[in-house]
Specification:
This protein is an alpha/beta fold. 44% of the residues lie in helices and 15% in strands. The chain has a six-stranded parallel beta sheet, with helices on both faces. Strands 6-8-12 form a three-stranded parallel beta sheet. A three-stranded mixed beta sheet has the order 9-11-13. Helix 1 links the parallel strand 1 and strand 2. Bound molecules: (3R)-3-hydroxy-L-norvaline. (3R)-3-hydroxy-L-norvaline binds next to strand 9. This is Nucleoside-diphosphate-sugar epimerase. Belongs to the NAD(P)-dependent epimerase/dehydratase family. GO terms for molecular function: L-threonine 3-dehydrogenase activity.
Length: 310
């Protein structure tokens, strides 16, 4: 049985749908600090769960005889800058609880998401390699770098089978994302359809690593299905989808909405974005478990506008 913690989030929502399709609804327990939308709540078992409460998590694990946990609950980069200590508490203690349950053999496998946010201002920005300088300058990035160190430690020291990918900015239409810096790349499609224009909180030339959600979900499930001995990286795998800046995405949208217009009003999130790489090298993921993205920017735009119009 699988438990998804943070099942109402941008990634959690879509992981729940895919895993329920694959393994059957009754075998995938969704949980979050708050209830989700109607479709999620009606599609299988749900538990209200505070990921920072060890005994609450343990109760759910024992009650449903959980084998695997996908820990998707976290406070993202922009919000974490506003509430550093709440972000550290949520992002780290939820991870310790899940790693300790695995150490005590109460569960057998863990997925935990890292992020390109682990890289910092002095990390090489182009084709950022799997192993390189990492001095993250955001609360969120610090929590992800520390989380990676703990995942690798629990694997080496206690044999915990924890797997992780460094997600780029993710673009999806099923949920409204919350609190991220890359959320501009989701908001822009909503605004394009609603107002025909978008005021972007990042500068036109801010190139960032991005990925369409379907690719991210496929990568996650593929990594979890690889035999443990083939998973060499136990911190977190670099994962590349595409790289673009706000001007590129505006041009892509104009192919569908010719008079779409974009303006730029950078805010505090510009500094966060400037500390991150502009493109990622994911050679280890490609070599070790056959990773290959499928969506480019124009395909993403077609999917986003097509689905949001409905
Ligand atoms: C954020 N979407 O913006 C997340 C992600 C790389 C970006 O970590 O914080």
């Amino acid at each position: 049985t699988i438990l998804i913690i943070g099942a109402c989030g941008q990634i959690g929502t879509e992981l729940t749908i895919e895993l329920r399709k694959k393994y059957g609804s009754e075998n995938v327990i969704a949980s979050d600090i708050r209830e989700g939308g109607e479709s999620l709540m009606q599609s299988g078992p749900f538990e209200l769960l505070d990921a920072t409460d060890y005994s609450a998590v343990e109760d759910v694990v024992m009650h449903y005889e959980i084998d695997e946990i996908y820990l998707m609950a976290a406070m993202l980069s922009a919000t974490a800058e506003k509430f550093p200590m709440r972000a550290w508490n949520l992002n780290m203690n939820s991870l310790f609880h899940v790693l300790n349950l695995a150490k005590e053999k109460k569960i057998s496998k863990v997925f935990w998401p890292s992020s390109i946010a682990v890289f910092g201002p002095n990390t090489p920005k182009e084709d950022t390699p799997q192993n390189t300088i990492m001095e993250p300058s955001t609360v969120y990035g610090i929590s992800k770098q520390s989380g990676e160190r703990w995942c690798e430690y629990y694997h080496k020291k206690y044999g915990v089978d924890v797997r992780s990918v460094r997600y780029p900015g993710l673009i999806s239409w099923k949920t409204m994302p919350g609190g991220g810096t890359t959320d501009y790349a989701v908001d822009i499609y909503h605004e394009a359809l609603k107002n025909g224009s978008y005021e972007c909180f990042l500068k036109a030339d801010t190139q960032l690593p991005m990925m369409y959600m379907d690719d991210a979900i496929r990568a996650t499930i593929s990594l979890m299905e690889v035999p443990s001995e083939k998973v060499k990286v136990r911190s977190s795998y670099n994962l590349n989808g595409m790289s673009f800046n706000p001007e590129d995405i505006a041009e892509s949208i104009k192919k569908h909405i010719p008079d779409f217009s974009i303006s730029y009003e950078p805010d505090f999130r510009q500094e966060i974005a400037d500390s991150w790489p502009s493109s990622i090298d994911d050679t280890p993921a490609r070599n070790e478990w056959g990773w290959q993205p499928e969506y480019d920017l124009d395909q993403t735009t077609a999917e986003m506008l097509g689905n949001l119009k409905k």
